[in-house]
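Assess this:
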Amino acid sequence: MDVRPKPRWFKSSYSGGSGTECVECSHADGCTLVRDSKLVYGPVIGIRSPAWQAFVEGLPAEA
């Protein structure tokens, strides 16, 4: 029996406004999960916390 809690997905603030490139994220133990919001039962990528933090810090500031 799998007792892990279900991920709480949220839209990334870096997703575009056109609705065609939406990314959803969820925080899990020691990592961030990422998926395509249009493919909710599709693949999920797990990125360890230090790598996720480096990625987010490398993104340009919003205009």
The mean pLDDT is 84.
